Amino acid sequence: MFDARPSDAEYVRHRVSQFRAQVARRLDGSLTEDEFRPLRLMNGVYLQLHAYMLRIAIPYGTLSPDQMRMLAYLAEHYDKGYGHWTTRTNIQFNWPKLVEIPDMLEHLASVNLHSIQTSGNTIRNTTTDAFAGAAQDEITDPRPYAELIRKWSTDHAEFQFLPRKFKIAISGGARDRALVSAHDIGLRIVERDGLRGFEVWVGGGLGRTPMLGKVIRDFLPEEDLLPYLEAIIAAYNLTGRRDNKYKARIKITVAERGLDVFKADVEEEFRFRRADFRGIDQEALAGFRERFAPPAFRNAPVDGFEAERKANPAFRSWTDTNLHPHRIDGYASVIVTFKAPGATPGDASAEQMRLLADLAERYGHADIRISHDQNVVLPHVHKSDLPALYLALREAGLATANAGLTSDIIACPGMDYCTLATARSIPIAQEIAEHFRAEGLEEEIGKLNIRISGCINACGHHHLGHIGILGLDRAGVENYQITLGGDGYDIPAIGQRAGAGFPAEEVVPAIDRLLRAYLELREDALEPFIDAYRRLGPAPFKAALYPETVDA
Amino acid sequence: MSKAFTPTAAKPGVITANDLREGHNVWMCEDGWTADPAQATLFEDEAIAELALLKAIGQSDLVVGPYMVEARRGPNGPEPTHFREAFRQTGPSNYFHGIQATKQSEAANV
């Protein structure tokens, strides 16, 4: 049941002092590692390949400039000067010392950030569209609902030991940009007969058994959101498998039991849980709507923007690729990609974080978003400010005009950092980006999503890539499987394996053959890779990947 | 990544873990734990190795997650046989961080 708890700040500080005491007890031998591990994981502390890792939640990807500056401070004082944006819009620090993590958490608490429920079999950070509150095609800003879900799910007593981790995404746009179909629960804001509600998806997820979710309710009235979410998770908590970690996600529960059977359980739970919610959730929601009220947009001419576009081809190219349409005339949302050729996808230095905080204050109504594709979005920038913003970004190496293009690759940390990984992801992403930049083909290829994961857990969302790359260990050697035809957006689809894997050094040549074949096969320059693939089917693309098979 | 490896003379191994307080990778050596994998003790005898692993597990006030992993005898000490361990002994490939950086700064200070 939704419960008004002590203020966030008080609770977060309580958790920090609790964790500080737990670390002290681990160090003095009062706690064994087996006892301590679940406690550190509840606070986002993992042990990775070279060091501990601290994952910090960025609720629905929204950061204030002061929060961003705090992340920069932590990067400099407790890490090696950088942090990593994750595909669930969180940030990870790769080199913290266990003995210093309580101090890091204390600093985070001072700006209302924390690591609670960034690990463990709990409800994780609720993610949303990076353009929430700004997108032209949006019904309404999904963040008040996301905040409601965060408040309700944080420290929810019933859901601290679910069969497995649980991820919720919410999307408010006509186009889904939050990967609703690839989440344990996905919510799409819809309107019916003048009423607002949700299309509720359940049982999506990637990992070793990728599945797209199914619609369990095509219209859930807005006021039923929390009791219905609670009913789904309660039904899963009771019937989800705990005997096998690999069959414990809700997607397996739904697949094994059948959507109708599962739905009957959910509706039964919903019937009596609904009575527990007596409107306090709706009161809270009204408060959150005020908190996410739009900024004071200004009405100013955009002549300078248009003139600069005519005068400066580099600026024009950047505005062609890195802007997203805003609902307010004269405004745009800016995508700052962390995918410069040679860069590690999603890595941000302390200097870059501080610059973005400053620029958000100067030009962006002090609003910053982290996107699931490991970029940063300034959602509200007046077009007259874009030339100055572009210059400032360019000086910091952050004005690469590649949003949504070949080099805008999602890549998990892979075996450069992750202890679960079976191969590296980062060098493959770097090589592909550098290759197509050097060949000058990126603009010609156009819209393309390449997604790389370093193991079957699929943090790099390879199944949703138009081209997906999965790194595996084949007899002690890194090997990369290619999947084709995945899509996380317009027509959600799980990519299909193209054939045998490639050794690391053959991945770039294989992708090169594939994309050159696409350029030959497409109807015209306006047909993106994924559309050509859907029109023609996999055969000609497989032939490009495996020419020797065709010759034989 | 199998953590149940048992070394033999034909397939020797080392014991590795992470430093409890700071998290960096360490290897069991003659007089405790070292951050230099070349100084690691190479185990070739199953019984001695098992005893050493028990000892490592008993040192949970110093290290976390100790395990035995295959290694081969090299001119400058034990060498990794698998790329995962090779990465643990150097650091990430995208930045000059981790053991590769520690080694370089130590060499510079000699």
Automatic annotation (TrEMBL), chain A:
Residues 52-110, 336-396 form the Nitrite/Sulfite reductase ferredoxin-like domain. Residues 119-270, 409-520 form the Nitrite/sulphite reductase 4Fe-4S domain. The keyword Oxidoreductase applies. Pfam families: NIR_SIR, NIR_SIR_ferr. Keywords: 4Fe-4S, Heme, Iron, Iron-sulfur, Metal-binding, Oxidoreductase. It comes from the Bacteria. One of its GO terms (molecular function) is 4 iron, 4 sulfur cluster binding. This is Nitrite/sulfite reductase. It comes from Paracoccus alkanivorans.
UniProtKB/TrEMBL annotation, chain B:
Pfam families: DUF2849. InterPro entries: DUF2849 (IPR021270). It comes from the Bacteria. This is DUF2849 domain-containing protein. It comes from Paracoccus alkanivorans.
